[in-house]
Amino acid sequence: MEVLPDSWFSILYSAAYHYSDDTYHAMPPRDPQFGALDVPPPALNPPVHTAISQDWDDFLLDTFGVPITPIAPIAPIVPTAPRPEGLRVNVLRRSTSANSAHKIYVDPFSTSFISRMYSAQLPGARTPGTQLNNCLRQELDAAIIDTDSNFITSYLFPSSCLPFAIDDALFTKISTPYTTNNGEERRAVWNNIQYQPREFPSGYTEIATAKWFNEIGEALAHYTGKKIRRIWSHRNCEKPPGGYDIKRKPDIILVNIDYHSKLTSVNAPSDWNFIQALCEVTSQEKISRRIIDTINAKSYILFATQHNRRFVIALALTGNNAFRLTISDREGQIRHNETKLHGKRPSVLFITILAFLMFGDDADLGLDPNVVIDQDGRVQKIWVDNKYFVVKKLIHSVETLIGRATKVWVVFAEDVPDKLYILKDSWIQESYVESEVSFLSKMSPKLEGHVPKLI
Length: 455
Prior knowledge:
By secondary structure, this protein is α+β, with helices and mostly antiparallel strands. The chain has three domains: about 5-110, no CATH class; about 125-365, no CATH class; about 370-445, no CATH class. The protein has helices at about 5-15, 55-65, 130-140, 150-155, 170-175, 205-225, 255-265, 290-305, 345-360, 435-445, and strands spanning about 5, 15-20, 50, 90-95, 105, 145, 180, 185, 190, 195, 230-235, 250-255, 275-280, 310-320, 320-330, 335, 340, 370-375, 380-385, 385-395, 405-415, 415-425. Strands 6, 11, 12, 13, 14, 15, 16 and 17 form an eight-stranded mixed β-sheet that branches. Strands 18-19-20-21-22 form a five-stranded antiparallel β-sheet, with no helix packed on it. The chain has a three-stranded antiparallel β-sheet with strand order 1-4-5. The two termini are about 30 Å apart.
């Protein structure tokens, strides 16, 4: 066995040794290259590691077919801030020297998988825009699919899940002026003869585009009787939302209507935790590299701040009256071909997108319905195995756009608050579904009480 993934060794070492850290409270020095924590100097009284099993090598040989001798004491990693500023993964390899053929040494470099997770290595608030953009470009390399509207209408926003029917009758209605329940006269928003908007947003400015989106949404609500759940806002086009160290200013954001009303009443900036979708606008005729980079960066931030986020939807509009949809998830990115908003098919597609974004369920926008969010936008409880587990605290989160994006919480069942569990959530490739659970299961018979038990 040439390489052991770091998670395997963590399990094996934890099962083989206890450590006591009663005397160790000092913060170890930080590695300037990786932003991780080095082992503490001897003077700090590091934890004492005590072996549990005397026949550890024999057990490992029986279980995995290879003897492994754990290296001598490893200090626990102590976080210096609620959000990690960097990432360092230890790769365990057998030494190649003749004198240490059966020893294991710690290589302080990332695994080949982690090395592709460029965004996980970002240094937080100190990240300049070019560094973030370059990281995400490399991470998304070879993980982008360009597609046509068939993907959107068949898989992402299927007609069977539409909030209301989008047909000729609807286009005829929204091509007609109407009067609101408050007696206000509203102009038509569409031209059902040319199958395009009656007017496009003036200059494709943020304020004009947000207003244009909302006018179309209001007309749809009037003629379908459906209540608008989310509206578009330009409030962060000049001031970054709060809630994250990396500062970026989305042109237009989609937020719940109640949340928008609350912000408007106190004139407060929004928080990344409550942004549902994004839109970038430009007066240029084509989607530029800058637009692509900014969508990538803001999608990354949404994943980093929203622990219930499954995928991110981002629109882009150009001065050529064209639109483009980008969907990002943990495997990669799907980009809809840039489409001019003229004709029946593009019109149906565009209204379909707005219908789902402004009227659809949270799950339609990429939010996990099994996760309950509190009023501060934090994970409150998670539905697992037909019951809710209340979150006590988040103890681990890998902030990355692509990859497993593992998150670990300390939780307790709603009806049993005094019994704590570890709840782990991660994205796993279909071709690699084994996890530490399979190894723990093999270890449990001989190390009962010393390794975690899967519930």
